[in-house]
Design goal:
- The protein is an alpha/beta fold.
- The chain folds into four domains: about 130 residues, no CATH class; about 70 residues, no CATH class; about 60 residues, no CATH class; about 180 residues, 3-Layer(aba) Sandwich (Uracil-DNA Glycosylase, subunit E), CATH 3.40.470.10.
- It is built from 19 helices and 13 strands.
- A five-stranded mixed β-sheet has the order 3-4-5-6-7. Strands 9-8-12-13 form a four-stranded parallel β-sheet, sandwiched between helices. It has a two-stranded parallel ribbon with strand order 1-2.
- Helix 4 crosses helix 6 and helix 6 packs parallel to helix 7.
- The longest helix has 23 residues.
- It is globular.
- About 10% of the residues have low confidence.
- Bound molecules: uracil.
- Uracil binds next to helix 14.
Length: about 475
């Protein structure tokens, strides 16, 4: 076994070249990394282009020529190298190994497990870069020479400083600025972009005149009639709010918006606590299941008997997602074991699907209810509870990587397909999401049970069976 320690993408590149040249298979290499990403992504694209050019001109016999790595791989690798997952170096090497050992067109096979994972990582990095471009807010400071300098603090999820900084040097060319992140800082002196070590948030100024300006601007463009809280949260993730001056206005502005929306986001600070605090380091299903029992990300844990995690095989290709456990599920600790579960069972049977081959879970893991005498009546989870619980579902889906996800009901559909999803109009349509190639939404069995009109009820059952069948066909 070879133990290789890399600090940056360039390190990985030269190590990978040496290993390929020595014919060392991925199974015989153990990669380790450090957080210091300095040197990452240094002109990777230019390098790739230059190498290609040199190779074609000189026909030299350097290892890079013999392995002639396709440029799309280098581009993908440059992004994946910025992902925070320490497993990225191993994954990159094993993919590169396969490419140079006969699978030249591997990257075109997006159903391949390695390729799929790399694509997800690239997507996460690209999204993080996009968020950094959108959420960095500079604050003015006076330097000793009384020149103006702008400073911003940002906390990306991945090591993306070098991917994002050139954008700021183009956009704010005539300003001297510094962006601080925990891993790395970037400095622009109106001529040159340089990088330095990361710095804690305490180094960034808290407020100044610029902040008021931002607030005025934000208030002037904010239109309560068009407010979409979910979109806001998607576009302006809550974890960035503490560094955005305009975020302090959101509460006030939203208070004037329509009451339904107002209720959803009444106190945006409530959104900041999520199950992410309770996720285990190792995120396989067993570790997640153990960890969920300790979750206190929202108040639902106070009244529920227990957290109800998903059940099913870890290699399930089909995942069904419901809303939240009901009364029976809360007591038994398993999803879909009550009346809705019975209807689901018969529908699965009629669709030719074995329940034990399917993974069943819910968007929210604790039962939400209202007491009426001795009865506990189901209560729909609100957006704050759904938001708080979401990391569990996302981690389950990341661990399972199913072919197909079927959302049962509007809560699951809106959680995975977007707030604008309308079950009555979009039921049964196949969409690709970051969690699976096929995501379909269909009726929730509980909604069918509640349907008073018998004919309509029969029709909905048939539609449920038909949608389950389609989902199962796709996941074969
Ligand atoms: N309804 C759901 O959405 N999930 C369950 O587990 C039970 C009923």
């Amino acid at each position: 076994m070879r133990f290789i320690h890399v600090a940056c993408f360039d390190d990985w590149r030269s190590e990978a070249r040496g290993l390929l040249s020595d014919q060392i298979p991925p199974t015989e290499v153990h990669w380790s990394a450090e957080d210091d990403q300095l040197g990452l992504f240094d002109q990777i694209q230019e390098k790739a282009a230059t190498e290609k050019e040199t190779e074609s001109r000189s026909g030299n016999t350097e290892p890079s020529t013999r392995f002639s790595v396709p440029t799309p791989f280098l581009d993908l690798a440059g992004h994946v190298a910025c992902h925070q997952d320490p497993a990225r170096w191993q994954l990159l090497y094993q993919t590169l190994w396969r490419i140079v050992h006969g699978e030249r067109r591997l990257l075109e096979i997006s159903t391949d497990d390695d390729v799929h994972l790399l694509q997800l990582m690239r997507k996460a990095v690209t999204r993080d870069v996009h968020k950094m471009k959108a959420f960095v807010r500079f604050r003015k400071i006076e330097t000793e020479a009384s020149a103006e300098t702008y400073i911003a603090w940002h906390r990306p999820d991945h090591f993306i400083m070098r991917l994002a900084a050139p954008f700021f040097s183009r956009r704010f060319k005539g300003m001297s600025w510094t962006i601080l992140t925990p891993h790395e800082s970037a400095h622009w002196n109106q001529q040159q972009l340089t990088y330095g070590p990361g710095l804690p948030a305490s180094e960034a100024p808290k407020s100044d005149a610029l902040e008021d300006l931002w607030k005025t601007y934000y208030a002037s463009i904010f239109n309560p009639a068009r407010i979409k809280v979910d979109m806001m949260k998607r576009e302006m993730p809550v974890r960035h709010w503490p560094t955005l001056p305009e975020a302090t206005l959101i509460d006030d502005l939203i208070r004037d918006a329509p009451s339904r929306v107002n209720e959803m986001i009444e106190n945006y600070e409530g959104f900041s606590k999520t199950a992410a605090h309770y996720l285990p380091i190792k995120q396989d299903l067993r570790s997640l299941q153990q960890a969920v029992s300790k979750c206190q990300a929202c108040h639902l844990c106070n009244d529920a008997t227990q957290a109800v995690f998903g059940v099913g095989p870890e290699n399930a290709r089909l995942v069904l997602v419901g809303e939240q456990p009901g009364d029976r599920e809360d007591i038994e600790g398993e999803p879909f074991v009550g009346p809705a579960g019975e209807l689901l069972n018969t529908s699965l049977h009629q669709a030719g699907i074995e329940r034990r081959e399917v993974y069943l879970t819910n968007v929210v893991k604790h039962f939400k209810f209202e007491r009426r005498g001795k009865r506990r009546l189901h209560k729909k989870p609100d957006s704050r509870e759904i938001y708080a619980c979401r990391p569990w579902l996302e981690s389950e889906l990341a661990a399972l990587r199913p072919k197909t996800v079927i959302c049962l009901g509007a809560t699951a559909a809106q959680a995975l397909l977007g707030r604008d999803f309308r079950l009555s109009q979009q039921r049964g349509r196949i969409r690709m999401t970051e969690w699976s190639q096929q995501t379909i939404a269909t009726w929730h069995p509980a909604a069918i049970l509640r349907m008073p009109d018998k004919n309509r009820k029969r029709e909905m059952v048939q539609q449920l069976i038909q949608d389950l069948k389609r989902g199962a066909e796709f996941s074969e």
